[in-house]
Structures are given as C-alpha cells and as structure tokens.
Design goal:
The structure is a single chain. By secondary structure, this protein is α+β, with helices and mostly antiparallel strands. It folds into 2 domains: 4-78, Nucleic acid-binding proteins (OB fold (Dihydrolipoamide Acetyltransferase, E2P)); 83-153 and 159-246, Up-down Bundle (de novo design (two linked rop proteins)), CATH 1.20.1440.120. 36% of the residues lie in helices and 22% in strands. It is built from 7 helices and 7 strands; from the N terminus they run βββββαααββαααα. It has a 5-stranded mixed β-barrel. Helix 1 (86-102) runs antiparallel to helix 2, helix 2 (110-124) packs antiparallel against helix 3 (130-144) and helix 4 (191-201) packs across helix 6. The model has no long low-confidence stretch (mean pLDDT 92). Keywords: DNA damage, DNA recombination, DNA repair.
C-alpha cells in the first residue's frame, strides 16, 4: 500500500456518490494528486474544512486500487476570506485552474507550491493592489514552469544594449534594436514596465504586493502576460478575467 504524508492545497472538489468528494490536490512533495474524501459532503465530516477550495492542509492518504483515499487531514490555513470578496475569489479561482491545468502528477514543484500558498494568503487579506498581485503571480508562474523571459540581454544576439529593445513573445524576451527589424511580431514596452518585470522576478511576491505601481503599467504587463501564456501554455483561458474586468 502506498502512503503519502504531505502538505497540499485543494485545486478542485467534485461530488462523488452521495456523500464523498474527489479532490484534486497540489501537494508539496508529489505534485498533483487526486484523492477521495469519504463523507466530506456532510456538515459534520472530519474532512469538511480540508476539502474546501483553496484550503491548505496536512494530508495523510493511502492508495487503494487506482485511487488515493484520505485517512487524515489537518487544516493549516482555510483562506476562507477569499470567498467573501468577489474580485479576490475570481482571481484566486483563475489561478488555481491555471495551476491545475499545467502541473503533472508525480512531479513536485516546490517553488510554485510556495508561490500559490503566498498568493492565496494575499487574496485572503484586504489588499488594494489585486491586479498587481495577479501580474506578479503570472510572471513568476511562467518562470517556475521553465519559461522565464530574457530581460537582461537580446534573446537573439546576446547584446546587452537594450535602449530601443522590444519584446518578442516567440523568442521569449527582449530583442535589441538591430535584431527586432527582422521580427514579424513584437511588442513595444515602457522601460518602466521592463523594470517592473525584473523587480517581480527578483523578489518575493509578498514584497512585490507592497510596491506602489501605476495602474497603466499593471495593465500593460497584464496584456503582455496574456499573450505570453497563451503562446507557451495550451490550457489557458482568460475569459473569466476578461468578463470580470468589464464589470469593474
């Protein structure tokens, strides 16, 4: 019998039979894991709090046949306040769907796990710069998934003179003035936006959340990140966020 003891964050909970839930959990040690939480739909279930969306828990689970079953779960942080704010809930829901769609069973990613836990913590708090936190998460997400954009030199020739550089999504970073003339598609970015990207990549997301950043730069970075993620990741949809922004 395979036994797992690990911390995990609930990415999805689906009703199964009359009283059970099938949980998709992002675990610190084992990546994505699916597990049955027996009786978790009941209001008096011992797994009730550890089966809630976004919740961060210690889990003991054992594999029976083809599926893990929860045997013990202790809540570390519920992040319950996320559900009390529509904007925070929308951003957090988008983020966990993005993570679920792109992580793999049996492949841990500790940096991404820590990033997700920190981001959920921020959205559970009363913060004003929710859009900046989203930008910071997305940029760090592409980094931790292996697609860190090149920002300190030309991605084509290695030139460090980036005075008139543009951003090439296809090449994965900045392209110098000499090389960008050969590019069919590129994005012109404000130099301050490039500096913001470097700041985010080099700092903890908690630190980034405290930065004072003009909203126009936050929007420009988000527009770039949308294109970047769609180009490098198959399972990405921004429809829910686009709808949210039309309602604001």
């Amino acid at each position: 019998m395979i036994v797992l003891d690990t911390q995990g964050i609930v990415l999805r909970a689906v009703k199964y039979r009359d009283k059970d839930l099938i949980l998709t959990i992002f675990t610190r040690k084992y990546g994505k894991v699916s597990a049955i939480a027996k009786g978790a739909q009941g209001q008096k279930s011992r797994f009730l709090s550890a089966s809630q969306l976004f919740s961060y828990n210690n889990y003991n689970m054992r594999k029976q046949k083809d599926m893990f079953t929860l045997y013990q779960a202790d809540n570390i942080k519920s992040f319950y306040n996320i559900s009390m704010d529509f904007e925070s809930f929308s951003y957090a829901s988008f983020i966990i769907k993005l993570v679920e769609a792109n992580i793999v069973e049996g492949q841990p990613n500790n940096r991404l796990f820590e990033l997700l836990a920190q981001t959920l913590f921020l959205y559970s708090e009363k913060i004003d710069n929710k859009n900046l936190v989203l930008d910071a998460f997305l940029l760090k997400f592409v980094d931790y998934m292996g697609y860190r954009p090149q920002l300190d030199r030309c991605t084509i020739c290695g030139n460090k003179n980036l005075k008139y550089a543009v951003f090439s999504v296809e090449d994965g970073g900045l392209v110098c003035n000499n090389c960008h003339k050969k590019e069919k598609f590129f994005i012109k970015l404000d130099q301050t936006t490039i500096s913001l990207m470097q700041y985010i990549l080099n700092n903890d997301i908690i630190v980034c959340s405290k930065a004072k950043v003009a909203e126009v730069l936050v929007r420009e970075l988000f527009s770039l990140l949308k294109i970047y993620l769609i180009n490098y990741f198959e399972n990405v949809s921004f429809k829910s966020l686009d709808l949210l922004k039309t309602l604001k």
